[in-house]
Amino acid sequence: MRNKYHLKKRVFFIVWAMALSIFSAAYTGAQTGAQTTATSEVKLTPQEKQLIANFDRRVKDYLKQRDRVKKKLTPLSKDSTPAQIEAYQQGFVAALRGMRAGTKPGYIFSPAFTQYVRTIIETEFPPRDKKDVKKTILEAETKGVPLKVNYPYPETKELTEMPATLLLKLPQLPKEVKYRFVGRHLLLVDSDNSLIVDYTLNALP
Asked: pLDDT-derived band of residue 42, with 50, 70 and 90 as boundaries?
């Protein structure tokens, strides 16, 4: 009886493991398919691929500047006080602004890239979705945000979240930076210190 019990128990676990394996493979395949669909929604021409490659290169240039500045700062500890954190952030921004002194708008957002964003919004969305995207962006309370490279995005102003449908169609960014809209104007903002890295006018058609 004991042998039969153990045999049944062993068969049960084998069947359970096989079912779990099949489910996991199916789930992984579904995720991969979803990601592939998301990233392939916008079909790029050779010129657009080159445009995005140039954009990515300029973003990486900024990250290199950022890393050089950060390495010179005294790192915060897990026991840092709010005052120490504030001082660290202020020092980070001041040093980064100094390194990027003289940087002009368009260093990352070239005119061709701005036109690419406008074209994406105009052509890749059905009329209703395009209307929702514009409504989300334009209704945010962002009046008074300075359109100035190397200036901090004011803490008191609303951070307009990019509509997910639009974010999926734009070139993906590293975690250190993020897209922000201020009215019709597109900004690239540092995720850690809110520094406005670059901006471009009228990216929203």
From this structure: low
Tokens of 27: 């789930």
Residue length of the chain: 205
What pLDDT is stored for residue 41 in this prediction? 58
191 and 102 in a common domain: yes
> φ and ψ at 74, to 5 degrees?
-75, 120
CA dist., res. 37 & res. 42, Å (int): 9
- Specify the amino acid at residue 178: K
Q: Are residues 10 and 84 in the same domain?
A: no
pLDDT for the residue 104? 92
Q: If we measure between CA atoms, which residue out of 52, 203, 39, 42 comes closest to residue 137?
A: 203
Burial classification of residue 42, based on how many CB atoms lie within 10 Å of its CB (0-12 exposed, 13-18 middle, 19 or more buried): middle
Please give the pLDDT value at position 159. Answer: 62
**Domain range enclosing 76:** 46-200
